[in-house]
Amino acid sequence: MTNSSPLSVPHWPLPHCVIVIPVNRDGRPRIDGRAIGTAIDCGPDDVTLELHAPSVRLTGDLVLGVDDPEGGIAYRGAQVVAATEAAPGMLRVSCRFGGLGEELLDPRHLVARFDAVGKRHVLGFPADVLAAWEALEVLRPRPNCTLPTCPSCQGLPSFTPGCPSCANAVLTRAWVFHHPACGYAGLADAPPRGRFVFCPHCGDEGLTAGKDCRWLEAFRCPTCDWVGTDWEMFGHCLSCGLRFPADRAVEVAVPGYDVARFVPTMPERVAVAVDETEERAKR
């Protein structure tokens, strides 16, 4: 159905209790402003509430909690459009879904994401703000995952192999010739194509490759001339630039939250009435 005006959008009452929590400008809940009531008129984009008059004036942003028929409470952010006295001790508040309360409940802000500027994982709001909503059981902490971080600044590092002697990240491939009979092991050219070779240390000739001697593929550091087969893994902090052995990385828990979201769903009887109205309009 095409809506030519807001009045043509279907609305319906909600039979469940509604909890109203005002949101301060910094995103924290305003505990002394909480109120309870019912939704006398709800649509896909707005809702009208009748509340027991709260102790503070309701303006700005709200978080609404609606009883879920399947158990628990589902939440939605809203902004106050108008507030009038409906009866002594009762307040009628017209709201439109959205605003700061909706941003607080946005799943994209409740999961830590990589900050390209700070080079670390951050949530969409300060940790103490989200903790305040967790204390009200609006947000539910999810199991933490852990990430290796820089031991100096807890920034996010990248990991690359490096020289165990000087930590240089640039290693070149090399060959080591090993002659067990005389104990020699040293840098050499790539294995020859011929079958027989000689030892450059003891001069023994006619050695059979793979039987009397062998070549080991190794790594060489051009900075300190270290040669070996076992490189070491190093971390490089993307934030402060520190280079450190990987086993010195600090495991940090990455927090995250879940929230049950309230999605206005048109009751079946209202949907039937809308369909009947459309059919009559076509005639």
Please supply descriptive tags for the structure shown above.
single chain; 283 residues; mainly beta; six-stranded antiparallel β-barrel; four-stranded antiparallel β-sheet; 3 helices; 40% strand; rod-shaped
Describe this structure in words.
- There is one protein chain.
- By secondary structure, this protein is mainly beta.
- The chain is 11% helix and 40% strand.
- It contains three helices and 21 strands.
- β18 and β19 form a beta hairpin.
- The longest helix has 15 residues, at 268-282.
- The radius of gyration is 34 Å and the shape is rod-shaped.
- Mean pLDDT is 83; it is low at 1-7 and 269-278.
Topology:
Elements: E1 17-23, E2 35-42, E3 46-52, E4 61-67, E5 73-87, E6 90-97, H1 99-104, E7 113-115, E8 120-122, H2 127-135, E9 140-141, E10 145-149, E11 157-162, E12 172-179, E13 184-188, E14 196-197, E15 207-208, E16 214-220, E17 227-228, E18 232-237, E19 243-245, E20 250-254, E21 257-258, H3 268-282
Antiparallel strand pairs: 1-2, 1-4, 2-3, 3-6, 4-5, 5-6, 7-8, 9-21, 10-20, 11-18, 12-13, 12-16, 14-15, 16-17, 18-19
Rough outline: rod-shaped
Major beta-sheet overview: 6 strands, antiparallel, barrel
Order of helices and strands: EEEEEEHEEHEEEEEEEEEEEEEH
Strand content: 35-45%
Helical residues, percent: 10-25%
Class by SSE composition: mainly beta
Query: How many separate helices?
Result: 3
Average of pLDDT? 83
In terms of quaternary structure, the protein is single chain
Instruction: Report the uncertain regions.
Output: 1-7, 269-278
Widest sheet: strand ordering: 1-2-3-6-5-4
Based on CA atoms alone, the radius of gyration comes out at: 34 Å
How many beta-strand elements? 21
The end-to-end span amounts to 15 Å
